[in-house]
Design goal:
single chain, 307 residues, alpha/beta, Rossmann fold, Cobalt-precorrin-4 Transmethylase, domain 1, 10 helices, 41% helix
Amino acid sequence: MGVRRAVDMALAEAAASAKAGAVFTLGPLIHNPQVLAGLEKQGLEIFDEKNFSKEFFLKSGEAGVAAFPFPPGAALVIRAHGVPPALEKELAERGVRLVDATCPRVKASQLKARALVEAGFHLFLAGEKEHAELAGLQGYAAAACPEAAVSRIVVGSAAEAEAAAERLHAGAPGARTALIGQSTISEKEYREISGGIKKYFPALEVVNSICDATRDRQEALRRLLDRVDAVIVAGGRESANTRRLLAIAAERGKPCWLSESPEDLPPEIFSFQTVGLSAGASTPDNVIGGIERALSEHCCVTPHVKT
């Protein structure tokens, strides 16, 4: 829901703009090359936030100011993953008009992270270290306590979480701790990470930060796996929630592949009698439908099941 909301907001900005090159998105709004190409045809320009450097934020008259990539008055759509507040502030000060399409669920986690740090909690953040959503959460936590009086620890697995908790406990055994997860993390991963931390901090406060749509799709896929011989996950290869769906199928030993379009369906899939189709939360309906039709037309799908 969050990604589709961001896409709709970006398209509305493009439609309202009177000139080309006036609407940018901060990072890809959706992890699907075909959809991104369509957005660019609508006049949206994608700027990779990883390309930001301090030179972009030098004030007028300082060396390097010409490197700033956005023209005066340009609209910049913040995607569903959100961004650190310091980046928002810098962009606004440079005259960029920000369109905040941060997913409401992610925004709630950002504000909760800030409130917990302000209250003196040491914060564990569960998810992919390089993911944009984690960067935003870290930014909100850091803004609440820039002098790092409390820890802000990113963990990607139960083993990492347990090791980090052990280190924190050695220096601050009475610390108050809290855990917030990336919205697309699986419940199993989140539960295991929480368990690792609780070995040292039993009173850990666990924030319910998993997206409902993500949870529903993961549970639907688990039910589907018992009914099919193989699985196709429709979605972008860069999408965290799509990769997690693929991992759930792989963990159960089920043959599975990720497809971004009907054209990249693996030839092996057509040798299976019963194929299940799952999809990432941000995968457009037309992409899912195209993959479903290709499966139905070229192999026997009895029954064809879709989450």
